[in-house]
């Protein structure tokens, strides 16, 4: 015979199960709405450095962008700290989110809160800035071409296996298929971290051997970006920060930035360390949409822009994403046809994607240094950005 207490216990057990389920269903089907009473499409900054337009004037559906804003605001676990959209050289959407970064134990400063005049660590986006400066030197003919042997610039250094490395060219360094014996990802004993912790990053790299023939295999290796940064310094006679400021940042009116140096040598490294405002991050995408031209000044050639936006190879055979010249190329289709999309990406969720056919730039900065979801920005593109301009059947495919 069932006692009254048994009914009470059964009811409590059912409540423990059903209440969370009901809450989840309520959140999914009746999501909270962000307070829009003080909402503005773009924000005030100290620099008046972007032309501003309302979303509908550039072909966006405002309601879809508001849905995007609501979604990002409520998904704090993704640690999105800023989100910007430009189209037709106009800033149309600019939002900042007061979300703290996850702590990853590195000594890198982490400015908070995110705002129009707050710079953000770019991590490996620095690599694409370094490659852009190589493009600038090619345009100025201070570097002849990307078939130039990389180690010709390091003739006086003590380099392990130099004979084997003589066939490594600048193009191999740009595409990360140099053959250097370098393990950076998913490694407890990461060469990237060991390089940063060493007394001399360049000496650490020079002491690494060769694992493959140049051009044979694509392996992500920040070492090549460090050496390209060294090439820039040797060619120009300036440190990397000085030349970036002279050749790139000044023309683009990028003044509020920083570049974290190696703690022992004080070197600015071409692989990481750069800090940019989100607005300035977006300018880099616009520069490539402009094919190297900014306010009438040419930074690099049209040929460099076109070559940079072509994938060269893959790091993972099971994934669709490709790489080349320090750009990433995800696989997104529109009505079954692959869309041309290219991105600068940095650890923790620093993302800037351009879609040349749509004259569109999409910027995200994040603090997900421990729990990054690399697919999330691309899901936002297909679920919100593209539908907001009438492209409703886009699909992102991460794996083959």
Please provide a written account of the structure:
- Helices cover 34% and strands 15% of the residues.
- Strand 8 and strand 9 form a beta hairpin.
- It has a single domain, classed as Beta-lactamase, CATH 3.40.710.10.
- The chain is globular, with a radius of gyration of 23 Å.
- Helix 2 runs antiparallel to helix 12 and helix 3 crosses helix 9.
- It comes from Photobacterium frigidiphilum.
- Keywords: Membrane, Transmembrane, Transmembrane helix.
Structure described in brief:
With 400 residues, the chain is of the alpha+beta class. It is built from twelve helices and 15 strands. The chain has helices at residues 4-29, 62-74, 125-139, 162-165, 170-175, 191-197, 201-206, 222-236, 240-249, 278-289, 302-308, 376-388; strands spanning 80-87, 90-96, 119-121, 258-259, 274-277, 293-294, 297-298, 322-324, 327-329, 332-334, 337-338, 342-346, 350-355, 360-366, 394-396.
Read across the widest sheet, the strand sequence of neighbours is 2-1-14-13-12
Indicate how many domains the architecture comprises: 1
Q: What is the number of beta strands? A: 15
| Quaternary structure | single chain
For the biggest sheet, the summary is:
5 strands, antiparallel
Task: Supply the CATH architecture.
Answer: 3-Layer(aba) Sandwich
* Shape, per Cα inertia axes: globular
So how many helices?
A: 12
As a percent range, the share of strand residues is 15-25%
- Tell me the radius of gyration: 23 Å
CATH class reads Alpha Beta
Distance linking N and C termini: 59 Å
Identify low-pLDDT runs.
23-30
The CATH superfamily label reads: DD-peptidase/beta-lactamase superfamily
Query: What name does CATH use for the topology?
Result: Beta-lactamase
H/E topology pattern: HHEEEHHHHHHHEEHEEHEEEEEEEHE
Percent of residues in helices: 25-40%
Mean pLDDT: 93
Class derived from helix and strand content:
alpha+beta
């Amino acid at each position: 015979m069932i006692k009254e207490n048994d009914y009470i216990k059964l009811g409590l057990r059912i409540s423990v199960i059903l209440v969370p389920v009901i809450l989840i269903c309520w959140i999914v089907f009746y999501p909270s709405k962000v307070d829009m009473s003080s909402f503005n499409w773009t924000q005030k900054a100290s620099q008046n450095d972007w032309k501003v337009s309302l979303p509908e004037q550039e072909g966006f559906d405002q309601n879809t962008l508001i849905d995007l804003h609501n979604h990002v605001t409520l998904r704090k676990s993704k640690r999105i700290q800023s989100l910007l959209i430009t189209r037709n050289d106009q800033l149309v959407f600019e939002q900042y989110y007061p979300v703290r970064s996850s702590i990853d134990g590195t000594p890198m400063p982490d400015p908070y809160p995110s705002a129009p005049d707050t710079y953000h660590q770019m991590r490996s986006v620095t690599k694409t800035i370094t490659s852009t400066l190589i493009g600038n030197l090619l345009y100025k003919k201070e570097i002849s071409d990307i078939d130039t042997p990389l180690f010709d610039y390091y003739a006086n250094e003590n380099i392990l296996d130099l004979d084997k490395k003589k066939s490594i060219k600048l193009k191999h360094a740009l595409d990360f298929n140099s053959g250097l014996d370098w393990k950076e990802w998913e490694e407890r004993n990461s060469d990237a971290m060991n390089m940063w912790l060493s007394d001399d990053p360049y000496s650490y790299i020079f002491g690494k051997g060769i694992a493959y023939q140049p051009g044979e295999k694509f392996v992500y290796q920040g070492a090549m970006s460090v050496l390209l940064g060294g090439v820039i310094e040797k060619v120009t006679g300036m440190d990397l920060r000085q030349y970036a400021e002279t050749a790139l940042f000044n023309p683009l009116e990028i003044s509020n930035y920083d570049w974290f140096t190696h703690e022992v040598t004080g070197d600015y490294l071409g692989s990481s360390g750069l800090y940019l405002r989100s607005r300035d991050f977006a300018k880099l995408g616009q520069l490539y949409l402009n094919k190297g031209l900014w306010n009438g000044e040419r930074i690099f050639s049209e040929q460099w822009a076109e070559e940079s936006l072509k994938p060269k190879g893959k790091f993972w055979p099971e994934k669709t994403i490709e790489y080349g010249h320090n750009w990433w190329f995800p696989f997104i289709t529109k009505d079954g046809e692959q869309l041309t999309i290219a991105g600068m990406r940095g650890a923790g969720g620093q993302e800037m994607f351009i879609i040349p056919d749509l004259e569109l730039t999409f910027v995200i900065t994040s603090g997900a240094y421990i729990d990054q979801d690399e697919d999330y920005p691309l899901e936002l593109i297909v679920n919100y950005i593209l539908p907001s301009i009438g492209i409703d059947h886009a699909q992102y495919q991460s794996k083959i």
